[in-house]
Amino acid sequence: MFSQFHARHPLYPLIALACSLLSLLVGMVCAQTPYIFAYILFLDVLFLAFGMGMATLMMNLGMGVFGIVAGAITALINRTFDMFWITPARCLLIGVCVVPLLAVPPAMLTRSLNQLHCPRLITLGMLITVRFIPVVFGEMRQIKDAMRSRGIDTRWYSPAWYRPSNLYRAFLVPLVMRMVGISDTLSLSVESRAFDPQRRDATVYHSVHPTARDWTFATLVLLAMAALILERFVWDLPFPEVKL
């Protein structure tokens, strides 16, 4: 499901994770300054330069539209458009900061955690959780195809989709049964491969190490965060007003 977002040369997973969390935290704290858009634009350009173009464009498009709609609804409820831009900025920020994690394959994150001797139950749980999401969507797609072949309209705006006989018996029950079956198969697969959570001498098939490219990326992100913090709490630069 998310494989199309993976970068050809992904970043070191732990650096990508740290940059995502820190950039999101700093952005949310400083979201009330109009220069937050310059911060988001810098991150966009940086991610594009480091080969994360697909994820960057898709997240900006999706979260940008969602933010504008949410901001308009908030402004209509509060009957003022003075702070309309804060909601789109925060939505864009969330979408942009997720990009480095989307661009890293889950196997690389698991390998890096195994190299740091993280408990194997945690790494295996993370890998299964990430891999399980596309499986769920795939099963939902197959069940909907089967429903359509029986003449049931599965479009979300169709009244037929919300009938209990369709939504519950034809969709939810088969989906739950498929999830139970996949869980049993997964547990048997782990057991047949002699997985032992207490084993300490397990090796990593392909070790992952940070490179100069990763440290350069982290340095640029830290500089952007430092500039935003200084502008918000120290410099307090005036934002140019646009007169219509």
Percent in helix? 55-70%
Helix vs. strand class: mainly alpha
Query: What radius of gyration results from the CA coordinates?
Result: 23 Å
Note the gap between the termini.
45 Å
Number of helices: 8
Note the overall shape.
Answer: flat
Order of helices and strands: HHHHHHHH
Q: Would you count the extended β strands for me?
A: 0
Largest sheet: none
Q: What is the count of structural domains?
A: 2
Let me know the average pLDDT.
Answer: 82
Give a short overview.
By secondary structure, this protein is mainly α.
Explain this structure.
- It contains eight helices and no strands.
- With 244 residues, the chain is mainly α.
- The chain has helices at residues 13-29, 36-49, 53-78, 86-102, 106-115, 120-149, 164-192, 212-235.
- The protein has two domains: 3-107 and 209-235, no CATH class; 119-192, no CATH class.
How are the elements arranged and paired?
Layout: H1 13-29, H2 36-49, H3 53-78, H4 86-102, H5 106-115, H6 120-149, H7 164-192, H8 212-235
Helix pairs in contact: 1-4, 1-8, 2-3, 2-4, 2-8, 3-4, 5-6, 6-7
What are the key terms here?
244 residues, mainly alpha, 2 domains
